[in-house]
Specification:
The protein is mostly helical. About 75% of the residues lie in helices and about 0% in strands. It has one domain: Ferritin (Up-down Bundle). α1 packs antiparallel against α2 and α3 runs antiparallel to α4. The protein binds magnesium ion (MG). Magnesium ion binds next to α1 and α2.
Length: about 170
């Protein structure tokens, strides 16, 4: 008996690549969190540790979806993240740039699902389309705050985050 597969080999492959990008984001955010922790900026560190957990959850959503539709999960090799930063601005800008990249790739996956008339995949990807708007917005706001406050007054960003900013 052959196993029924509800996903095309092309989309399956593209989903595996997205698992890699989500896991890379998770690793990159751990590295950024540690950079802030090293500067005793605990709230910024906590924000990025939380983002790292969320990115792993994103990867797992793709894993679970592939398992559900009888696809094949192949976790790709994950490149080492950047661990050294000259400034908070550099670290947050890297996060923003990565979220923009992931947004573009999620849009590509949606385009592929539409072209293949894979309605289940479209519904699944819908959540990610919305999530990416939030992710980009969060990082964009944080970058603006960090830029306005300036490198020497990052303690004020900590106070901002203590009062529910960045959520
Ligand atoms: Mg993500």
């Amino acid at each position: 008996m052959t196993m029924t597969t509800l996903i095309s080999p092309e989309l399956n492959k593209a989903f595996n690549e997205e698992i890699g990008r989500e896991l890379f984001a998770s690793h990159q955010y751990i590295a950024i969190a540690c950079y802030f922790d090293g500067r005793a900026l605990k709230k910024l560190a906590a924000l990025f540790f939380k983002q790292a957990d969320e990115e792993r959850e994103h990867a797992m959503k793709f894993v679970e979806y592939l398992n559900e539709v009888g696809g094949k999960v192949e976790v790709p090799a994950i490149e080492a993240p950047k661990s050294d930063f000259q400034s908070a601005e550099e670290a947050v800008r890297l996060a923003l740039e990565w979220e923009i990249e992931v947004t573009n790739r999620i849009n590509d996956l949606m385009t592929m699902a539409i072209e293949q008339k894979d309605y289940a995949a479209q519904e699944f990807l819908d959540w990610f389309v919305k999530e990416q708007v939030e992710e980009v917005s969060t990082m964009q706001d944080l970058l603006q705050i960090v830029q306005q406050v300036g490198e020497h007054y990052l303690i004020m960003v900590e106070a901002y985050l203590s009062h529910g900013g960045g959520e």
